[in-house]
Write a structure and sequence with these properties.
Radius of gyration: 37 Å
Helix content: 55-70%
Largest sheet: 4 strands, mixed
Strand order of the largest sheet: 1-2-3-4
Distance between the termini: 91 Å
Number of helices: 5
Order of helices and strands: HHHHEEHEE
Length: about 220
């Protein structure tokens, strides 16, 4: 029993030593707490900055998309009735590439419903115009070529889907004439997205043809992969 009290005292002292923090430890704990608070405050600030940037980006995208929608409506009017020349093809390609930049920027912001709606409107509008314009341009090219080659006793036909153009004339009995004519036509027929150019000596005769493998009429340069 005489050893019990000293043992209790010793246990108490050990407990006090273990549970009592030194001034240095207290300071370290305070520093850690301050650091945690600053980190939390910085996280809040960072989130606020990101949120503000996203709001500004979304606002800018909506303005850009609406502006491009209005501008494309005018482009649509200007493209209608244009002669199907190499300049027309180049101009159309360049104009579409400009609008594709806005489409690319807004494609990754579909979390905003307004941006998604405007994006899809612009995308659909451009695709619809391209499909219509290319069909009209191929018809125009076929008619223009037919009128030009009539004097050379060459007839020109275009298929119902406007994807195949056929030239018929006795000249094409010579392979050299076929090759030279195709060389002269390749750029414009490729640009107008013809799928096939056919040469015949006379109607329903054997034919020589060239497949061009175009993209879809609604393909948007710079946006579609």
């Amino acid at each position: 029993m005489k050893y019990m009290i000293p043992l209790l005292v010793i246990g108490l002292i050990i407990t006090l030593i273990v549970t009592t923090k030194t001034d240095e430890e207290k300071k370290r704990d305070r520093d850690l707490e301050i650091a945690r608070q600053k980190s939390a405050e910085n996280d809040i600030k960072d989130k606020a900055i990101i949120n503000a940037k996203n709001i500004l980006l979304t606002r800018h995208l909506k303005i850009s998309l609406q502006s491009d929608l209005d501008a494309w409506a005018k482009e649509d009017e200007n493209l209608s009735g244009r002669a199907a020349t190499q300049d027309f093809v180049l101009t159309l390609k360049q104009r579409v590439e400009l609008y594709s930049q806005t489409l690319l920027k807004s494609r990754d912001s579909f979390s905003n419903k307004e941006v998604a709606t405007l994006h899809n409107k612009l995308l659909t509008s451009i695709r619809t115009t391209l499909s219509r314009v290319f069909i009209a341009a191929r018809k125009d090219y076929a008619n223009t070529t037919k009128n030009k080659l009539w004097e050379e006793d060459i007839d020109v036909h275009i298929s119902g889907d406007t994807k195949t153009i056929t030239l018929i004339g006795y000249h094409f009995a010579a392979n050299k004439i076929v090759m030279e004519t195709m060389k002269a036509m390749r750029d414009i027929t490729t640009g107008l997205k013809f799928k096939r150019v056919v040469f015949m000596i006379y109607k329903n005769s054997r034919s020589t043809y060239y497949d061009l493998s175009p993209t879809k009429d609604s393909y948007i340069e710079g946006y579609d992969k």
